[in-house]
């Protein structure tokens, strides 16, 4: 009590009011007028009140649209653009490259003038080859009576299937969006990088077989560079030319109308580059509506449609892009560089969709406008080949070689055509020199294949040196296994046993019913020998070889089964053969004195069974790699015809066998359903 009393006495003595006890246990100093003004609040309390007022004010402004943000942003954008135009007008006097504005290139020139002596040294730039876009994918091969060696027959590329459009998506999550070759920078010019010395694929040209044959999902690691072969037909570019080719080339794409709206074009182009394709399309579409005679605006719209087509896997959008490229090229006042870029891309995308005749017409127009461009003529030749017009392609390449006799691309394709015409010896120097040139578009498995095949047929052992080189380049699985339409990772061996294939039931059925199958085939030979069509794939050195096909590419061939109903009924029970889209079921009759050149089948996705029906002895034999075997009546031989094989028929009578192709046993059910037919 004494302490409390002293405390109160002390407070009164100091003249300070006693602290006030609140209900929450805290104490506050009481001062003069405390009883009148009520409790005092801390600074923190006022800060909380002000913050809450700010939050609710912001909510109210946003919710009730008190401020028109769109208008504010539009004003800001207008100010920025107007300021940019004014600034460009101020700097127009420093336009050194003549493109109508002041940009980075002008600044570089000015800096060089101020930092270097006045003596000018002219720089020379070698002309740059145009870069091409992606090529089309492997598609179905048209049927023929014998597809045992589609590639060896030197037929042109199969037409593309326009029912599927599955390009690579450059905007997949996690991957940076890559600008396609020949993209437009913000200065309104096309910047082209020089092409690498050896390009695996060229648009408007044949895909390399490494692209066509890689049907497995995993990417193959890059192959080691082989030792160069002795050069006989051409030389590599000099170092100075390579340095010049490495420089970028600016192409003028803007005409007067385009320059007047350059800032708007640049803004839309930046949206496209960043992957904002929907917004970019609206921007370019608005420019086209406001300035219908602007080629650059219409070309930009076509590019965005092209990008969206890849992103959405849309054939309709791609066709729209093709149409818009054509519109851009038709506008008056279009620059020659934009005309070339638009029509070339149009031709590429037409080929991608399988519109081969349209692509040919586009390329022909390009050649008419640019008659001295050898690269465009080469592309035109490929377009003829894609249509199966070897005669037209041959004429084009003869014209190219007349003005550019060392052009490797023209040489290798011209040799390819000569080989298809069975001018074997004449084709060899063109194929060899074209491959030795190392020019883009020449490193193709088919050219290695046909050069080796031609050398074999004239008895030149250097064929296997070229096969080895093709193997080192990644086109062939091995020197022996030279098929081009492959699935990676499948077991590869020339000869198989029924147990290894897993098709023992099929083999057992064939061997048990071989006489029934034989008798039906003989009956057809007696009453309608015309069903046995001659082999037309240019595989025979001499002799006669006929075939009667029942199934091809997984489908029955017309009314063929009417002649051999029992055989077809037996085969229907085995979908591994009747459903083999990369094989055939057929009878094969070979007359005495026949020799079949060494050759390989087109794919590693099948195995081939031979059932002996009529086998005269001795003299009938087949070699696969370095192993030779003979047929027996009623017995099945199984081999992988993607390996090199050769046949001799030196008996006194005809040889008759039943050929049954089956899926490679390691292919999954999904692969069997989705692989394209051959």
Automatic annotation (TrEMBL):
Belongs to the aspartyl/asparaginyl beta-hydroxylase family. One of its GO terms (cellular component) is endoplasmic reticulum. Gene3D superfamilies: B-lactam Antibiotic, Isopenicillin N Synthase, Chain (2.60.120.330), Tetratricopeptide repeat domain (1.25.40.10). Its main location: membrane. Coiled coil: none annotated. It is found in: Endomembrane system; Membrane. This is Un-named hu7910. It holds the Pfam family Asp-B-Hydro_N. Keywords: Disulfide bond, Glycoprotein, Membrane, Phosphoprotein, TPR repeat, Transmembrane, Transmembrane helix. The chain crosses the membrane at residues 44-64. The keyword Transmembrane applies. One of its GO terms (molecular function) is peptidyl-aspartic acid 3-dioxygenase activity. Residues 12-29, 220-230 have a biased composition (Basic and acidic residues). Residues 232-241 have a biased composition (Polar residues). The lineage of its organism: Eukaryota, Metazoa, Chordata, Craniata, Vertebrata. Residues 511-665 form the Aspartyl/asparaginy/proline hydroxylase domain. Residues 169-182 have a biased composition (Acidic residues). Residues 1-11 have a biased composition (Basic residues). Residues 42-112 form the Aspartyl beta-hydroxylase/Triadin domain. Residues 1-36, 112-251 are annotated as: Disordered. TPR repeats lie at residues 374-407. It is a single-pass membrane protein; Single-pass type II membrane protein. InterPro entries: Asp-B-hydro/Triadin_dom, Asp/Arg/Pro-Hydrxlase, ASPH, IPNS-like_sf, TPR-like_helical_dom_sf, TPR_rpt.
């Amino acid at each position: 009590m004494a302490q409390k009393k002293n405390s109160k006495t002390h407070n009164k003595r100091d003249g300070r009011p006693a602290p006030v006890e609140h209900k929450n246990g805290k104490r506050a100093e009481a001062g003069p007028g405390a009883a009148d003004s009520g409790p005092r609040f801390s600074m923190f309390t006022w800060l909380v009140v002000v913050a809450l007022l700010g939050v609710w004010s912001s909510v109210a402004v946003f919710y009730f649209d008190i401020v028109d943000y769109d208008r504010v942003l539009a004003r800001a954008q207008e100010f920025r653009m107007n300021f940019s135009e004014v600034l460009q007008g101020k700097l127009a006097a420093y336009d050194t490259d003549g493109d109508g504005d002041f940009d980075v290139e002008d600044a570089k020139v000015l800096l060089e003038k101020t930092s270097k002596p006045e003596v000018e040294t002219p720089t020379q730039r070698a002309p740059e080859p145009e870069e091409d876009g992606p090529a089309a994918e492997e598609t179905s091969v048209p049927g023929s009576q014998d597809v045992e060696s589609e590639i060896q027959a030197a037929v042109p590329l199969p037409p593309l299937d326009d029912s599927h459009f599955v390009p690579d998506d450059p905007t997949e999550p996690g991957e940076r969006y890559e600008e396609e070759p020949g993209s437009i920078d913000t200065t309104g010019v096309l910047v082209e990088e020089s092409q690498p010395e050896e390009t695996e694929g060229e648009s408007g040209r044949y895909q390399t077989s490494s692209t066509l044959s890689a049907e497995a999902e995993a990417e193959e690691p890059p192959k080691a560079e082989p030792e160069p072969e002795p050069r006989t037909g051409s030389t590599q570019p000099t170092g100075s030319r390579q340095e010049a080719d490495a420089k970028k080339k600016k192409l003028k794409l803007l005409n007067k109308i385009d320059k007047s709206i350059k800032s708007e074009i640049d803004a839309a182009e930046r949206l496209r580059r960043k992957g904002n394709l929907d917004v970019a399309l609206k921007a370019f579409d608005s420019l086209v509506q406001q300035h219908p005679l602007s080629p650059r605006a219409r070309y930009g719209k076509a590019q965005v449609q092209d990008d969206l087509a890849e992103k959405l896997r849309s054939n309709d959008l791609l066709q729209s892009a093709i149409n818009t490229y054509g519109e851009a090229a038709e506008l008056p006042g279009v620059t020659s560089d934009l005309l070339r870029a638009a029509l070339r891309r149009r031709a590429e995308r037409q080929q991608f969709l399988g519109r081969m005749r349209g692509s040919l017409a586009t390329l022909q127009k390009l050649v008419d406008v640019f008659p001295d461009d050898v690269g465009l003529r080469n592309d035109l030749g490929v377009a003829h080949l894609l249509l199966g017009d070897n005669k037209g392609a041959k004429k084009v390449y003869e014209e190219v070689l007349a003005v550019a006799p060392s052009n490797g691309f023209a040489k290798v394709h011209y040799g390819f055509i000569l080989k298809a015409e069975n001018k074997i010896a004449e084709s060899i120097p063109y194929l060899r020199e074209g491959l030795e040139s190392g020019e883009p578009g020449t490193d193709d498995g088919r050219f290695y294949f046909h050069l080796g095949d031609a050398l074999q047929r004239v008895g030149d052992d250097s064929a296997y040196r070229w096969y080895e080189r093709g193997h080192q380049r990644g086109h062939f699985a091995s020197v022996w296994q030279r098929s081009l339409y492959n699935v990676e990772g499948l077991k590869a061996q020339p000869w198989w046993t029924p147990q290894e294939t897993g098709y023992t039931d099929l083999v057992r059925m064939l061997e048990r019913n071989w006489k029934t199958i034989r008798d039906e085939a003989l009956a057809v030979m007696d009453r309608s020998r015309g069903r046995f069509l001659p082999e037309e794939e240019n595989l025979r050195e001499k002799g006669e070889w006929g075939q009667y096909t029942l199934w091809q590419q997984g489908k029955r061939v017309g009314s063929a089964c009417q002649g051999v109903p029992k055989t077809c009924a037996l085969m229907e029970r085995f979908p591994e053969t009747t459903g083999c889209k990369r094989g055939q079921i057929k009878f094969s009759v070979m007359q005495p004195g026949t020799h079949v050149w060494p050759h390989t089948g087109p794919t590693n996705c099948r195995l081939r069974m031979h059932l002996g029906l009529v086998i005269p002895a001795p003299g009938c034999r087949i070699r696969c790699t370095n192993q030779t075997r003979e047929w027996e009546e009623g017995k099945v031989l199984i081999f992988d015809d993607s390996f090199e094989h050769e046949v001799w028929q030196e008996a006194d009578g005809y040889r008759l066998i039943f050929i049954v192709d089956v899926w490679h046993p390691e292919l999954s059910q999904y692969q069997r359903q989705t692989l394209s037919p051959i």
